[in-house]
Amino acid sequence: MKLVYQPVPHWPGQAWLARCSRDDERVTVFHGSDVETKEQWFCEAVWAGDFPAGDFDRTDIVAGSGGRLRGDGLRFVSSASDIDRLHSIHREDAALVSNSLVCLLAWMDGDPDTGYGGYVEDFANYRYTVFGERTLAFPSTAGTIDLTYFSNLVWTGERLRESDKPCGERRFGSFEEYEAFLRHCMRDFVANARSEARLRPYKPVCPLSNGYDSPTVAALLSEYNGVEAFTFRVNQHGEDDSGEAVAEALGIPCRVIDREAWRMEALAEVPFLACSGSIGDLVFKPAEACLQGAVLMTGYGGDLVWDKDVRPSDPVAIGGGSMLGLTEYRLWAGFINCPVALWGVRQLHDIIRLSNSNAMRPWDVGGGYTRPICRRIVEAAGVDRSLFGVGKRGVSAVPMSRADDLGRCSRADLLAWLKEQRRRGRKGGGVPRYPWIAELLDRGISPLAVLFGRIERVVRRRRLVRWLLPPVSWLRKRLTHPYYHHRYRVHWAMDRAKRRYSGAGVLRFPVQ
């Protein structure tokens, strides 16, 4: 088997698509300008290991993706998390694999099926992919595409098969063992990212809040020179979420980002909605200057891995929907997304036992928000106890109504797309209804949804009127349930995002 490379200059720098033919020993890899291409392997990845060796298929401490030739065939490597994935489909004479769902659909001239409205719910199932089913289905007009999380795929000449990532004999019997594991992985990971053998080395960057998870990652990174951070001063409700004081204590330069600045760019939502159905991660868009050429080191997954009082479900669910929206956007902006909290996640029960052990009591502050492992690591790095872990807030932008999923220009473009679909007639089994109904729904229901969202927050804070919470919450959920035209936001976003792979670029509209 042999790798043959075909650069595609107008593609996003980190995008790639491999065509594996059944009647040809050659595998052709089409790729953007920032993909590392070697005789035996290719990647847009960082891992805890020697970069020139290219052994990213032999570890579960890896972020990004790529392919590696071995004796048993070509191994396509996924990120060891549930916030990235491989996309594949079998055709009559070949199999196609890509790190981009948009790229794969553009290649096959396929679209999401307008007769299918469950894409957003399907994307949400990613939460169970580390400990549950690793491959989910994406229905399209070109056939069913497989979305593979946390597992590798192996091509042996006939079909793709799923292959688990190696884990090794790993046990965490004490805090010292777990901390040593994290620091060892961080040392090798940072060295790999900065390797001079790379076409383009990556700089370590971390988003920083005053919670627990991101300060823990920053503390682990603080011993390395050249690390950068950025922070948002407030969360979406206007509450203090700044990590500036933590960054100062750790000696890490920190840039303050306006979390709402994405609204100044038309169609900013497109790559986020196309791959996740959500705008929750759009807050990272204004930090694009920090993210370019970076490996983004986050505390994603800390809610499960580092919380003392967590009780894992069966199957185990990680996260609440955040970070998946970066799957396509990171290829456009040019960065690697690495959730450090998920390193060693398959030893989850060992880590939970550590958090509840007697040895960790001095760092257990009690209450409903306590993470002794995080507190011990961050305080040991010189951060005062009062500066972090003060309250659970979260970075994501969770819209209070479906109309908030889109800015003014994007909403207008969605309505124009709906009109276009009606003119074309039936496509994939579904026909969008009249767009003028959509405009009425946005104008009428959305303000009510926002109002009941505010009422719900007030009721939660006032114990004497807690009996009002169930009916208010029920009304708010009914009003924020996707009304018909927002069922098509993934279809619309995918149509617009595909233009990034045609050379035309995403449509631009003036901001009004």
Q: Mean pLDDT across all residues, rounded?
A: 88
Helix content: 25-40%
For the largest beta-sheet, the strand count, sense and barrel status come to:
7 strands, mixed
Determine the CATH superfamily of the largest domain.
Answer: HUPs
- Return residue spans where pLDDT drops below 50 for at least 5 consecutive residues: 506-512
Globular, elongated, flat, extended or rod-shaped: what is the shape?
Answer: globular
* CATH topology tier name of the largest domain: Rossmann fold
User: Pairing-aware structural class of the strands and helices?
Assistant: alpha/beta
Rg, Cα atoms, Å: 23 Å
> For the largest beta sheet, what order do the strands appear in spatially?
1-3-2-9-8-11-10
What is the helix tally? 15
- CATH classification class of the largest domain: Alpha Beta
**CATH architecture label of the largest domain:** 3-Layer(aba) Sandwich
Kindly report the oligomeric state of this protein.
single chain
Task: Count the beta strands.
Answer: 18
The overall number of domains is 3
- Beta-strand percentage? 15-25%
Straight-line N-to-C gap: 54 Å
